[in-house]
Amino acid sequence: MATDIYQRKINYLRVSITDRCNLRCFYCMPKEGVEWQEAKEILRYEEIERIIGIALKLGINKVRLTGGEPLVRKNVVPFIQRVAKMDGIKDLSMTTNGILLASKAKALKDAGLKRVNISLDTLNYAVFKEISNFDKLGDVLAGIDKALEVGLTPLKINMVLMKNVNEEDALEMAQWTKEKPIHVRFIELMPMGGTGRSCFLPVEILKQRIEDQEKILPVEGPSGAGPAVYYTFPGAVGTIGFITPVTQHFCHQCNRLRLTADGKIRPCLMSPLEVNIKEKLRQGASDEELEEVFRQVINLKPESHHLEKEEYKGKRRMSQIGG
Hints:
This protein has ten helices and twelve strands. By secondary structure, the chain is of the alpha/beta class. It has a single domain (12-321), classed as Aldolase class I (TIM Barrel, Alpha-Beta Barrel), CATH 3.20.20.70. A twelve-stranded mixed β-sheet has the order 7-8-9-6-5-4-3-2-1-10-11-12. α2 links the parallel β2 and β3 (91-96). The protein is globular and about 60 Å long. The protein starts with 11 loop residues before the first strand and ends with a helix. 42% of the residues are buried.
């Protein structure tokens, strides 16, 4: 397994298969200011598969498919089927907004996808539309139920906590875990790509609000590579987790690289550093040369970000990186 210069073991690759999405959440892909890449710039499936194969040779064994919204890309199920059969892969998962999940969950499970994370910032229909610009909450809820039914589990819900936007909805989301076998993670908004800091709210404030109402107990979280710290209500069937990328960053344990939809490998979500592997691949690079690109990126991995005291300096928004 490859290690970086800070002796962190790198075994996780997040792969964005598209920069497109069927929602327009203001903090990720707003209506204005985000231009989609031309189709020729997006990696073809066979190119993504070759890059994943190189990563597996270097000891990466966890792969997460992201977007944009990965389920809007055509022929995603056969692609997953091929990736799931690759030697060395232990965990193949996906982050999705859940809108298309109800119709695709069984096929995804049958293809070899193990589990899904669903991005959902509220259970309030009006707030959902305010955030995403679409009235699609019912589709997401149907997708969650179907994913649980077919066994795309453990099923995690990612809720980005935003001051004066959905902070009042967070308590309802936490209560949801009492009756549904889901793992709700509250995530601090990362001020990048123009989102600014006006909506930022430390998750510790939410945790204190929950504890002021009733007791929660620390618990071991579900399987996966995430950095959440988990709790549960006594007797609940699910858990709640808190992820603090800004106030208490977890860079010291970061084990991941990111492949963007347009073929750049990034050593850190919060750093503008990236290396163009697509260019090498389309110029006919050998496997050994592509392995060297990965090693170069691993050696570029910074010790930590500094979002707690300075603005993100990159130009890409979250949707253009893959989250």
